[in-house]
Amino acid sequence: MRLIDLSSAVDATSYEPDPVVHEVLSPREGAEHMSAEMRTHFGIDFDPDELPDGEFLSLDRLTLTSHTGTHVDAPSHYGSRAGYGDGVPKHIDRMPLEWFCNPGIVLDLTDAPTGAVGPERLEKEFGRIGRTPAPLDIVLLNTGASARAGTPEYFTEFAGLDGPAVELLLDLGVRVIGTDAFSLDAPFTDIIDRYRRTGDRSVLWPAHFTGRDREYCQVERLANLDALPAPYGFTVVCFPVKIAGAGAGWTRAVAMVDE
């Protein structure tokens, strides 16, 4: 079995609208931190110089959103109410793990311009690859956006899905839709421009807002989709980090390919 990493890194050196702060305590600073914590919490004095090389363990502190890097959006991210079940959308820690380890299908949307792709474009791609998604398949959208990761253009130039396109996938039984772009919706700039020109409220984040009435998850900011050897015949694993009460959780998304 070959593993293909489909994840983008959390990188404080890359451009982000919500900047990542990454502070590193060196092994020496970790020793001093441990000594101070022992004194504060347990009343124990311990000289860090007694440690080999005067070092303990390094420690990373990060400030970031749960939507930084490759992550899974939970239904609670889409709004405060749900038009299904008990009316309360689930947080990421309550999502069924069975959704996040399933056969994958990658759709090539690299020729789509910035904006929203409709269901007819997805159906054309189903015909090209000779397969329609089955229930619980994980559908991945290769928009080509990952090539711009780390730049401002990554957040303004990519193709998303419109509402009917999302509905099509959900009607087929898909519950996890992934994209290499910043969002499963079109860029914010494109959405706002189309809304101001048309006054049509249906263009306002339809992929996300569809999730208010139909339970599903998005995996955003994937990478390396070009490395998949075929449009299907692989398994996607994208378990989200279990953050209590959160609308999203980071994931190390991987494709497993039998060889």
TrEMBL record:
One Gene Ontology MF term: arylformamidase activity
Gene3D superfamilies registered for this protein in UniProt: Putative cyclase (3.50.30.50)
Stretch forming the signal peptide: none
GO biological process: L-tryptophan catabolic process to kynurenine
Classification via InterPro entries: KFase/CYL, KFase_sf
Descriptive protein name: Cyclase family protein
Organism, scientific name: Streptomyces tsukubensis (strain DSM 42081 / NBRC 108919 / NRRL 18488 / 9993)
Lineage: Bacteria, Bacillati, Actinomycetota, Actinomycetes, Kitasatosporales
